[in-house]
Amino acid sequence: MYLLTKSRGLRLAAHESLAAIFALSVAETFYRFHSFTLECLAFLATWYGVSWALNKARKFGHRTDVPQHLRLLRHHEQVGPHEARPLEIGGVRRG
Q1: Residue 21 is assigned to a structural domain of this protein
Q2: Based on C-alpha coordinates, what's the Rg of the chain?
Q3: What is the residue-averaged pLDDT of the chain?
């Protein structure tokens, strides 16, 4: 957990906070297994499911009609050496 928070920083915490709060409220309201371990596992499974659903919804909202190979990379996306290609328009190399 320490390495995860250190590598991702507060960005991960901000990204997961909505899913965690929702999962915690569901767990507190509905889960009564009389076992800490079972309730903890159910809470983590709920958090995972809600986080997955929110990430799918965010990606669905960011879809465009532009094919993936024509999309411009955002500043935080990195291209590996095998994926790097020069920008070409009409046979003319730009950049």
Answers
A1: yes
A2: 20
A3: 77
Distance CA 44, CA 62 (A): 27
Residue 39 identity: E
Let me know if residue 95 belongs to a domain: no
Q: How far is CA 66 from the centre of its chain?
A: 21
Q: What is the value of pTM for the model shown? A: 0.59
Structural domain that includes position 41: 17-62
Q: Look at the chain and report how many structural domains it folds into.
A: 1
Residue 23: inside a domain, yes or no?
Answer: yes
In a domain, 88, yes or no: no
| Per-residue model confidence as pLDDT tens digits over 50-87 | 999 999 998 887 765 555 555 555 555 555 555 555 55
CA distance 6 to 13: 11
Q: How far apart (Å, rounded) are the C-alpha atoms in residues 62 and 56?
A: 10
Distance CA 65, CA 51 (A): 25
